[in-house]
Amino acid sequence: MNTSTFFEGLVHEDRVHRSIYTDAAIFEREMTHIFGAVWVYLAHESQIPKADDFITARLGLRPLIVTRDANGQIHALYNRCTHRGARICRTERGNARTFQCAYHGWTYFNTGKLRGVPWPEGYACDFKDAKFNLAQVPRVESYRGFIFGTLNLDAPSLSDYLGLIKKPIDEWLDRHPGGKVEVREANRLKFKGNWKLAYDNAADGYHVVFSHRSLLEMENRMQEDPTKGMSFYMGKPDEAPMYVQYFGRGHHFKDKRPNVAKRPGALWELEAAHPGMEHFENSIRKKLGEKAGRALDLAAAEPVNINVFPNLSILGNHIQVFQPLGVDETDTTWYATVVVDEAGELGGTVEDVNALRLRTQEAFPNFGEVDDAANFEEIQRGLAACEDEWVYMHRGLGIPGRVRNEPDGTLKAPATDEVFMRSHMKEWKRLMSTEPRISVVR
Amino acid sequence: MSYVDETYYAQLVRDFSAWPDGEIGDPGTREACRMVLHREARLLDQRRFEDWLALYAAQCVYWVPATPGGDPRREVAVAFDDRRRLEDRVYRLRTGHAWSQAPASRTVRAVSNIEVFPHSEAGVMVRSNFLLSEWRAGEKQLWSGWCGHRLRYRDGRYEIEVRQVNLIDCDQNLRNPSILL
């Protein structure tokens, strides 16, 4: 098979073939040619803050243990005993210097090095040979707390891989005191559908008033005119100042901030009712007076979707991770974040802010994402119609002047344009047609 | 107007983190509580959400922790609804545009192992186990766990002040958690 021709046949300028969502062989190839070839988000540093902390993760389907060793260095170890292949860590997070396989007792340090095996006199080999250490991801790097790993020795640095999408990530972080956040548990969802259905949706401004109609109606049920939540999508969203931007390498950005007035407190005014809203808002206003706006805005969902191919979406105040489990099963985990205020920038209101922020973050997974996930499942069901081969993503294509080539090489388009989807599909096609130099170290 | 504040949270966490051993012996109290739980299960299975809401106190919480015993002051929950948000939840389900419930789930739930514990002069804490079978869009799934109820006797009936739903897989990825559990 000429792979380049094969994938050319599946990804056209205006549409993609159904099999990229349904074919188990294509899915298996994605696990090496996509998830093995690019930087994949693994975990957040605040989930393993102390020496010897660990958290389990996956790189594609590969089970990993992300550890912080005694020297603070982060490793992404394969959670797979070198001996017979069993997972050596069965708990999702914790603190441990060593991991012992429950099957035959082989024990490894959290650096991946083999510590020892029971009754070594029964072996003729030298266990100092590195081949007995745990396999690990050869390249692990962090960007401002976000830990990524790649198996591809030829991949650019993480910083170069992220490229221009770093700017919105920086802006998202820098609105917080100290320029950082902490992860605090998650709303965890799953759907029976291909992982790309979630990634295709990540910057989709076209679905909002349809897929989320019940959410918009709910949030505005006390309003005379709808102003809460994503009401700015109603009417003519393509004429609103928000936009979608494609950054290359599959990364994209939906920026809704231009829809919101620049003054502090304007973002908070978009929030609908949440548990505890009155009490904690009053408490913040009492403590900060006219300066309460910034603190309250930190409890409101930041109106951005920052999507880092293939598995990370920073949106609102969430760090959302797309985890493929099979060709037609995907977990989407919405990690909540809280504000940390070590320098006291928020005048003693950080607890109040987080009390609000935890509740505001529960809203979308409860009342929005469930409907998207149901629609993703309906796509997967619909795609069983095998003679009906094509899935369209051509909104905006061929309309002169609609998609703008920016001087920095990015593409910008009105909010409902599907240019971001067409563009990440081109990148998908390129990656699927390229042989990555994949390796592990021990 | 939300009544949720630090005091409310603190009481909630206190009530649901320390379950006593000594059950209430009085059969009348136990029977009255059992009837509330069974009625609640039936109304939800019948999708009589407004009647179900009427079982709840004006100041109430419907709480589905995302970790075993999770503290809502420190972490997000699968659901943490005060009265207003609970009404929001029902309102959304009634819009006809909540696609995760189109078609609507058919559910049947079995509530068992009911134990009633003393709480305050008019209040009791109730523990129960549940199995909830859900059929929707051609597929069946099973939800299971235990519930904690804080009930208060007022105007001749027990009303629900708090319901904590503890899924055995609360910290795992859940498929379409759009029904009222």
Question: What descriptors fit this protein?
Answer:
heterodimer; A: 442 residues; alpha+beta; Rieske Iron-sulfur Protein; Naphthalene 1,2-dioxygenase Alpha Subunit, Chain A, domain 1; 9-stranded antiparallel beta sheet; B: 181 residues; Nuclear Transport Factor 2, Chain: A; 6-stranded mixed beta sheet
Please state the CA-atom Rg of chain A, rounded to the nearest Å: 23 Å
Extended strand count of chain B: 7
Would you state the CATH class of the largest domain in chain A?
Alpha Beta
Mean pLDDT across the residues of chain B is 97
Question: Which architecture name of chain B does CATH use?
Answer: Roll
Shape by Cα distribution of chain A = globular
Please tell me the CATH architecture of the largest domain in chain A by its name: Alpha-Beta Complex
> Which topology of the largest domain in chain A does CATH recognise?
Naphthalene 1,2-dioxygenase Alpha Subunit, Chain A, domain 1
| Model regions low in confidence, pLDDT < 50 over at least 5 residues of chain A | none
